[in-house]
Amino acid sequence: MTNLNDIVSTLSSEDQQYFIMFLERKNTRSDTKNVQLFKLLIKNELNSKEVCLKLYKAYKKDAYHALRKRLYQSLIDFIANSSLEEDKVVDMQIIKYVLASRTFLLHKQYKVAFNILDRAEVMAQENNLFPLLNEIYHTKIQYAYSNTSVKLDELIEKFKTNQKYYLQEDRLNIAYAKIRESINEVTVKGEFVNFQNLVNDTLEEYDIDITESMSFMSLYQLMKIVTISAFATNDYLKIEPFLKNTYDILLTHKNKEKQLYYHLQVLYLIAYTLFRNKKFNESLEFLEKQYELMSQKKDKYYNEFKLKYHLISALNFNFLGNQDKAISILKPFLNSKHSDLESLLDIYLSLVMMYFQKGDFQNARQIFSKFYHTDKWYIEKVGKEWVIKKNLIEILLHIELKNLDLVESRLLSFRRNYSKFLKEIKQQRAITYLNLVNEYFNAPEKITTLEFKNKVENSFEWIGGKQEDIFVMSFYAWLKSKMENKPLFNTTLDLIKTAQETN
Asked: Residue 75: how many CB atoms within 10 A of its CB?
């Protein structure tokens, strides 16, 4: 059955009201239940059977299914019409010009037709609408014989140049699709993929090169591809200059105001990258820009981006030392529902981390108890690396809560399920870390000894705080806090500060 709740969740509160008005105008009968159904879906408090009973006072499965189908179609019509009104005005106007010009050409009104095509060409060039430019040049070349002022060679050259940009966008779209498909292989099947090689090989295969003539969407896709490679290697430092330079190009893009959705995506990518590079204040500056845009067009995209915005904001505040503020930002999302499941799960896990760092293990355990699905389910939804982080923090939490039997079983389960994968992605240090955690668990009195400290020092290949992943540092901080007998959060902030000073 179509999940209408996911579609409804994409609408802002204002769009919801407009849609109700849209339904009421369409309804010709007073007993139509589509508005009632939509309002129940907005609340999202009842399951499908309960909604059916609420509407019909009995379980009328067929009638309910038919009502949902009609509401689904109405939603598609409403969203499509809204998109045409708001985002595709220029595109539609150019298409009208092209169609009108062809009618005039058929009636041999050549001068009028070419004047209209000239106007359409200027609009398409200003907005980097390469597919539409292709149609305009095709039409002009076809009827060039009818206009003595047309310089055919120049027109053909324009056509070829535009085709080059048009094909490059297609190649980029294919490259983006192939890389995203590989991500799904990792997320769903847990298969190992060398992302760095994949990205490099794919861009080389399709001859992708950044150019200011790219459309806004294509520049975003290129930034997304580069970010994927950073995600795979945990090396966000390399991509930061590229993202910022590309963003400077986007700021001067003629089509910037009409590409709000992709602009929001770009700001999030940069804010997230800056956070991973421990540049928290700068990340917050980009998040502020994102928030301003989220509030535009009557909060059109606010609901879609609110989880990501609040999550990265809270993480920045947490590592700036303002942990209470970070927790207060994320707590309202506990027990909430949202179509962005990945961000919602990240919020839960981040809250567990914050309470754990704070030493509030009871609250951390309470939130962790909400992870009641199997590891296989979480791997399918958010990937193996997320599940590994979840399991690592669970082991540390059980150690702090002195759940001795659970610690042993979780350690055994972790090694059995993830050792091979960690070796494949060249993250054996996670296994090394777990061995040290196990050693502390079995003999906690040894952790403050010089012998143990030397063992830790010699167990890892240290890459330096500048490049080191912030979440890896957070896990290491727990071990270091035990070795130095200091509060975990203070130890974490000290490590972060030292890393920032090397930047």
From this structure: 22
CA neighbor of 197 nearest in space, from 222, 179, 215, 214: 179
Query: Residue 183: which residues within 8 A CB-CB, separation 6 or more?
Result: 193, 228
- Whole-number Å distance between alpha carbons of 93 and 120: 8
More confident position, 215 or 383: 383
| Predicted local distance difference test score (pLDDT) of residue 58 | 85
Contact 257, 495 (CB under 8 A): no
Q: Burial level of 20, CB count in 10 A (0-12/13-18/19+)?
A: middle
Q: Could you identify the residue written with the tokens 């063992």?
A: 455
**Which residue do the tokens 């002022």 mark?**
149
Residue 236 pLDDT > 60 = yes
Per-residue confidence (pLDDT) for residue 191, from 0 to 100: 56
Give residue 150's region: left, alpha or beta (phi > 0; psi -120 to 50): beta
How would you class 426 by CB atoms within 10 Å of its CB: exposed for 0-12, middle for 13-18, buried for 19 or more?
exposed
Vertex 219: Cα angle to 242 and 127 (nearest 5)? 140
Rounded alpha-carbon distances, angstroms, from residue 235 to 53, 62, 202, 275, 291: 53, 53, 19, 12, 26
Residue 356, both tokens? 């754990």
Mean local confidence (pLDDT), 59-72: 87
Q: What is the pLDDT of residue 1?
A: 46
Report the percentage of the chain scoring pLDDT > 70.
90
